[in-house]
Every structure is written in C-alpha cells, then in structure tokens.
Amino acid sequence: MNVHDELRIEPLRDATDAALVGRWIYDEWARFEGDAVWRENRADLEHSLDPAVAIPKFFIGRVDGAHVGCASIVPHDLPTRTDLGPWLANILVLPQWRRRGYGRRLARAAMDHACRHVPTLYLYTFDQVELYQHLGWTSLEQGSYTGRAITLMQYRCTA
C-alpha cells in the first residue's frame, strides 16, 4: 500500500453520495434480486442519512477525495433469513482500488459501528469466507440465494 493512500471512512451524510452508493449496490448485486429487495435497499440508504439513526448505517471510503468503496449495517439482508439481523452488507471496493486492504477496513469500520449497538452481526457471502474468517466471523450454514451458493456467517461482538 502506498503511504499516500490514506483511506478515510465516514458515514454517508448526503443524498449525492447515497445515490452514488445506491448505483454501486444496484450494479453489483441488487439487479439480480427482486424489486422488493431493491426498494428495501433504497429505503435503508435514505434512512441511514439521518445522523440519529444507528442501523441502518452506510459508510463510504475515500482516498484523497476519490471514492473507493462502501460498507453497511442493515436490519435485513437475506430474504430467506428474516429471523436474523442486523447484517454486515454491501462491502464493495471499486475495481481500481482493490487488493489494497480497503474492503477489510470498510468492513471493520461498519462492524465497529454496529458493535456499539448490538451483540451479534450476520452476513452472507458468495465467495469471501476467508476474508471474513480473518475478521473473526464464523460460518453458520451453507445455502443458496439468487441461484448461487452462499455461506451464512455470524460475528459476536465483544465488550
């Protein structure tokens, strides 16, 4: 990592950044899901802009003002497991910024925020089990969503 690549992570605060993050999320995942899921994503993004709201909360990462990626904590993320939550979700690093550890740092920032409010987090991943295991997550079960294999994972926050 270049010493000049100072990643700054902060909660989303304005509608312009929320619209940008929404486009990233739609392009990467939501376009493969049902309309109801996308409506819930948009509502979570909008609700997240309220500084008084702890969950949902979306975060954006920047290096020297350039957008790098995002992460979020949302009440629900997997329609087949509405009994679980909240969820670490939408960990996305733009292609030109990948392989620098930014995804791990975005995830950690969202986890740290959530752990100030809840004892347990969940996520599902198509292909990043090892990344999340490095962050202290444990696998709960295997399943499928949108026709793809997933691993459902859990993180217990510590005091």
User: How are the strands of the largest sheet arranged?
Assistant: 1-2-3-4
Rounded to the nearest angstrom, the radius of gyration is 15 Å
Shape, per Cα inertia axes? globular
Please tally the β strands and state the result.
7
* Second rung of CATH, namely the architecture of the domain at 7-117: 3-Layer(aba) Sandwich
Uncertain runs are none
First-last Cα distance: 31 Å
The helix-strand sequence is: EHHEEEHEHEE
- Could you tell me the CATH topology label of the domain at 7-117: Aminopeptidase
Q: Largest sheet at a glance?
A: 4 strands, antiparallel
The CATH class designation of the domain at 7-117 is: Alpha Beta
Query: Quick one: CATH superfamily of the domain at 7-117?
Result: Gcn5-related N-acetyltransferase (GNAT)
Strand composition percent: 25-35%
Describe the secondary structure blueprint for this structure.
Layout: E1 7-11, H1 15-28, H2 35-48, E2 57-63, E3 66-74, E4 87-93, H3 102-115, E5 120-125, H4 129-134, E6 138-145, E7 148-156
Antiparallel strand pairs: 1-2, 2-3, 3-4, 5-7, 6-7
Would you give an account of this structure?
By secondary structure, this protein is of the alpha+beta class. The chain has a domain at 7-117: Gcn5-related N-acetyltransferase (GNAT) (Aminopeptidase, 3-Layer(aba) Sandwich), CATH 3.40.630.30. The protein has helices at 15-28, 35-48, 102-115, 129-134, and strands at 7-11, 57-63, 66-74, 87-93, 120-125, 138-145, 148-156. Helix 1 (15-28) runs antiparallel to helix 2.
